């Protein structure tokens, strides 16, 4: 046992908490990558999206991996937006308004999409229309995507985001080894507070994102 641990007997528990919170953060990032690849596979198969699976760089920084995830989500949103712009051009204004009205039933929106499906790339087929309704026209899906990307951006900008090898646990080891002496207690507490805030936002956002995408993929035949 070090003198620091003798003088501050709660420090070992604080270190363990930093490691645990860091691992929770990494687990959520891994979940997001898996969920996004599941979504990319569905969009490629049913909506003709030209997207590629994303891969985590376990030797890279959290920030780099967050950027990969955010770029994938942006590509998905850009493609959905391109379809929506085509719909706006093809549909009468009243029909387009109904398509984006959250009060309109999905069956009605499906009927509207069928009238222009052949003219809009990415909407050829009932499944593709259903995915578009659930993902692009869903208030829940839009909110979840926005929330997830905002939290990921904050994680990437955090101190932990800049640590190389953080996905392998190297980053947290560097943090702990840099906190020495009498200031260890205060610095550990500061790291705990930072990680707790990130985890408290990111964990529910990740699980809601995962749940939303599962609902989208569950409609597949």
Question: Describe it for me?
Answer:
The protein has 221 residues and is mainly α. The protein contains nine helices and no strands. The chain has helices at residues 3-7, 11-47, 62-90, 93-99, 106-114, 126-135, 139-157, 170-178, 184-217. The longest helix is centred in the N-terminal third of the chain and has 37 residues, at 11-47. The model has no long low-confidence stretch (mean pLDDT 80).
User: What is the helix fraction of residues, given as a range?
Assistant: over 70%
Instruction: Estimate the global geometry from the Cα principal axes.
Output: elongated
Radius of gyration: 22 Å
Please, what is the average pLDDT?
80
Task: Briefly say what this structure is.
This protein is an all-alpha fold. It contains nine helices and no strands.
